[in-house]
Specification:
Two copies of one chain form a homodimer. Chain A contains six helices and two strands; from the N terminus they run H-H-H-E-E-H-H-H. By secondary structure, chain A is mainly α. In chain A, strand 1 and strand 2 form a beta hairpin. The mean pLDDT of chain A is about 90. At the A-B interface, helix 1, helix 2, helix 5 and helix 6 of A face helix 1, helix 2, helix 5 and helix 6 of B. Chain A binds a DNA duplex through helix 3.
DNA sequence: TGAAACTGTATCAAAAGAGGTTACAAAAAC
DNA sequence: GTTTTTGTAACCTCTTTTGATACAGTTTCA
């Protein structure tokens, strides 16, 4: 299971919230649609809350709803809200520093990583949650 | 360890090969610079060979060298040559198909994944191995 | 006021993946 | 034919992600 699917689940969760409008949705219900455990959903919602994408309320009649309109939620925000890993990892162990190549490799790769991450964010900034909903409904 | 560092190591390996020109380099030597096990390097070289980026020779006096000039090796080729995971994974378990949202989510996410992957490839196509070497040497 | 219904989190167990290691067959060189 | 080296299989361990249980704290409502 070691592949991070939080972004995928987040899109799913946000779509459900969008379709529910102002009505609060319980983590239990969302978990049913996503087919996972309510705690997994609550953990995720916690991240989305920190990024001001959703609001949750505790207690009876509690639940979550979007913090803003679907048209104002960019997928780039969702991506940034989550602790997704980078596209590629740097070496687990540091390269041999006695080797002139090894010595400068990490810095280069780190820069490349940032560069790629920026590309991804830009691509994701082309989509809002509303676009997602439209695509899914027309399918 | 569960984050894939093969791309990072591949760049490192290719840089070493580039600096060695026509001279064949042994997996043992490369492993020393990358600070890992020779078998890990050979596994990686095997992938790079399949993509026609390097050539290896078995036997005494064997080793590996680049299959083409550094200026003709695009980082996008390196990326494609490796079994790197996607930027984000789809849900581990399939979403609930009784839910209208869940039913169409997978297709959408899959398309988005391809879209992002294309962005990454385009970004990486802006760099060749020669660019990498120049950057590292000027550091 | 007290029971019921939720969220938020901590903690643990289970599953999967990545990388490290050993071992050995096959190939080439000398 | 001995030595050196790649190619690959097999196995172990570590890490990460997800699933699951438990429970404290909040809010609603009778």
């Amino acid at each position: 299971m070691a592949a991070n699917s939080q972004f995928a689940i987040a899109i799913h969760v946000l779509t459900i919230l969008a379709k529910s409008g102002d009505e609060r949705v319980k983590s239990d219900y969302i978990a049913g649609s996503v087919n996972t455990n309510p705690v997994v959903i609550r953990r995720l919602l916690s991240n989305l809350q920190d990024a001001n994408l959703v609001v949750s309320q505790v207690g009876a009649a509690g639940g979550s709803s979007l913090a803003k309109q679907p048209k104002d939620i960019y997928l780039s925000e969702v991506y940034k809200a989550l602790p997704c890993g980078e596209v590629f990892a740097l070496h687990a162990k540091e390269a041999n520093q006695d080797c002139p190549i090894g010595r400068n490799m990490a810095a280069f790769l780190c820069g490349l990583q940032k560069d790629i991450d920026k590309s991804i964010s830009e691509k994701l900034h082309q989509y809002t949650l509303r676009d997602v909903i439209e695509k899914i409904e027309s399918a």
